Every structure is written in C-alpha cells, then in structure tokens.
Amino acid sequence: EPEVTQTPSHQVTQMGQEVILRCVPISNHLYFYWYRQILGQKVEFLVSFYNNEISEKSEIFDDQFSVERPDGSNFTLKIRSTKLEDSAMYFCASSEQTATDTQYFGPGTRLTVL
Amino acid sequence: AQKVTQAQTEISVVEKEDVTLDCVYETRDTTYYLFWYKQPPSGELVFLIRRNSFDEQNEISGRYSWNFQKSTSSFNFTITASQVVDSAVYFCALSPFGRTYKYIFGTGTRLKVLA
Lengths: 114, 115
Prior knowledge:
The complex is a heterodimer of chains A (114) and B (115).
Chain A: E1 5-7, E2 10-13, E3 19-24, E4 31-37, E5 43-50, E6 53-57, E7 65-68, E8 75-79, E9 88-95, E10 104-105, E11 109-113
Parallel strand pairs in A: 2-11
Antiparallel strand pairs in A: 1-3, 3-8, 4-5, 4-9, 5-6, 7-8, 9-10, 9-11
Chain B: E1 3-5, E2 10-14, E3 19-21, E4 24-26, E5 32-39, E6 46-52, E7 59-61, E8 64-69, E9 74-79, E10 88-96, E11 104-105, E12 109-114
Parallel strand pairs in B: 2-12
Antiparallel strand pairs in B: 1-4, 3-9, 5-6, 5-10, 7-8, 8-9, 10-11, 10-12
C-alpha cells in the first residue's frame, strides 16, 4: 500500500542552525501539507502546498519556514534558524486529487533543537 | 470559530471492556468533514475514518464504531472488546469544506488498555 515517507526520523540540531526535513508524498497525490506536534500536545497545521505554491499557511509558519518541491517526488520543509521552541514532531501529509480528499500522514520527523 | 474538543485526556480500561472516546466540534460551516486518527506509541498518525456532514449514518468496522450526531455536534468513537494493541492516542479532527485545506485537531485522548 502506498505511503508517505519522511527522512530523517530524528534530527538533532543546535539553535540557530538551518534544518531541512524531507518527505516523499504518495506518488499520485497533488496536495501536500506540513503539520507539527509539540510533545504531548495536539497536531497543528503549518502549511499546504498545491501546484508548486503555498495555498494556505498558519500563523506558526513565519518567515523562518519555507517549503519546496524540488523535484517530482520530494517535498521539503526548511527552518532557516531553529529556535528551542521548534522542537517538535513534524508530520508531512498528502491528499489525492482535491483538497477535500483524506490526508495521509507520514511517520514524522522528531526535531530536537539544543 | 472552528474547534475540536476531546474532553477525555486519558482513559484506562481492562482488556475486553468497551470504551467510547468523545469528540465535540464547533463550526459555522454547513459542509465539513470529520476524522479520527490513531497515534500508537511509535508516533505515526494512522487514518481510521472520515465522515462528511451530510452523512449521519453510524459506521461499524470490526470492533470500531462511530456515532455522528449533528444535533449535538459530536462524533464519538467506540471500541468494542478492547485489546492491548488499541493502546494509543486518538485524535478527532475537523476540516471545513472548501474554505481551508487544514485539519483542525483535538487535543487527543490517550487510551490505555490493560491486560
């Protein structure tokens, strides 16, 4: 069964460093998303991406964040200068043909900022 | 305002007991989708079910059943004859139709099934 994959599973970085989280959405999906979950809290929407542009973003998704689809398979989230409060699990998701199709989530990348 | 409330933070049951996880949502949209996801200890989010606001039929899938009541804005999830493998955090989520792509998650209910 097709699934969303994410790498790395765990990333440790120093405050102020740039990180890139990678995702490979399900191959025929057109909509891509990033969410984050601070430990023990709820899952929060960051950004959605369609047709090579951001379709929606939350207040969390400030200028420190950016997303890109550098090729036909990868979808990346970049955090330019990490802060301690960026420590969280980051989930990538994709949905098929329309924004109302079910979003399928990847296994997550745990980001730890020291 | 769009909001999902899962008032039960943690529930513990003994194996084979039935358990119901509550979800109450708020939205002004007339068309929306509701979801349940399971987050096992390994951390991934596993899709369980999706309902649209026009379909109030209850659904059963094996030991899982869902009760959608628009009148009370609730979408509750029942596990019958719970098993240790059901131990996880369960999230209810809301997605308004068309206006936004995002899912609005509740805070989750941690279910512990004891052997």
